[in-house]
Amino acid sequence: MSAPDHLDSDPPTTVDVLQRIKPGCEAAFEAVLAELIQAAMACEGHLGVNVFRPSDPAHPEYRIVFKFDRISRLKQWEESPIRQRLLNRARQFTEGTGQYAMLTGLETWFTLPHRPGLPAPPRYKMMVVSWITIYVLINLINVILVPLIGTLPAFLRTLVVTLVVVAVMTYVAMSRMTKLFKGWLYPARRL
Could you tell me which residue ranges the ABM domain spans (predicted)? Predict the structure, then answer.
């Protein structure tokens, strides 16, 4: 099986969990969550986790985002006894079953913090917002970073620039751009 075929059948994936915590149980939930994150970090293929704590009283849910390099490795984590044990402990501090969404493509950049289960916007809208963001980032990098690394060989400069663009896009810019353009990205949905 070639690498592109393998990536199509077992792509990188992001799991987006939205969970409401019982009032007064936040500290106990945080303790179990810390153990859950520690256990996930030990799993093969785990790429990171982000926790978005409630900041809006109208949406008092925790949003927890796990990233894995392959769906197959995510499945191994989901079926692991330690995860099951920790989820059972966490359930005593949560309300309802929560929301769970698995994202495997560009749509992972286009999730709203308090509404992860919404279907992704149309691809042309994702492309336009991504293009605007990349355009701004490349121009900022050309002004700020390129003068600092200008003496490096071209392939190393490109390596650094692309690494910075992808990291900023993934961890900083796209969540903010999604919020900024949410009215256009999700026009028919009540947010």
Answer: 19-84
Alpha-carbon gap, residue 34 to 37, rounded angstroms: 5
Say how many domains are in the chain.
Answer: 2
* Cα 55–chain centre separation: 18
175 pLDDT more than 90: no
Maximum CA extent, the chain: 57
CATH at residue 58: 3.30.70.100
H/E stretch holding 36 reads: helix 26-41
d(CA 85, CA 183): 40
Q: Which two tokens stand for residue 105?
A: 């493509």
Count H helices and E strands in the chain, helices first: 9, 4
* Integer angstrom CA distances of residue 129 from 20, 125, 191: 30, 6, 19
Strand partners of residue 63: 18, 52
**DSSP run (H or E) holding 189:** none
Element of type H or E holding 21? strand 13-21
Q: Is the domain of 37 the same as that of 87?
A: yes
Work out the end-to-end distance of the chain between its first and last CA atoms, rounded to an integer number of angstroms.
43
pLDDT at residue number 161: 92
pLDDT confidence of residue 38 = 95
The arithmetic mean of pLDDT across residues 110-133, rounded, is 73
